[in-house]
Amino acid sequence: MAPAAAGYFRRLKHRLTEDLDQVDAEEMASSADASGACRASDCVRGDEVTMLGRLRSVEACSQSAGATMQAEFFDGTDTVTLVWIGRRRIPGIEPGKKLKVRGRVGDRGGEKVIYNPNYELQGDE
């Protein structure tokens, strides 16, 4: 068997037998590397970043001071909470969607957060 064909079957076997979350994490991390995006695991408070990842969850939070919408963003290495202040819904921002986000990393209770990030919806895969 040719080396290229052997590599293909090895990757196919890996995709079919590995944990789906692990495969998704590996794909997200490799696509972030290919695009030149920052890894969430490498960014710290105060960094201006561009990251490529997928939304794991999205929720609207009604607070007495005003509405916010937040999403858990995962890039294959770590999670970052994205928070849009003053929004209850944003078309296209749904669990499972792939996004490229830009913003400054902050800290909220020891967790990484980006407030009002710029974002671009990426093609579904």
TrEMBL record:
<dbReference type="InterPro" id="IPR016499">
    <property type="entry name" value="NucleicA-bd_Rv2694c_prd"/>
</dbReference>
<protein>
    <submittedName>
        <fullName>OB-fold nucleic acid binding domain-containing protein</fullName>
    </submittedName>
</protein>
<dbReference type="InterPro" id="IPR012340">
    <property type="entry name" value="NA-bd_OB-fold"/>
</dbReference>
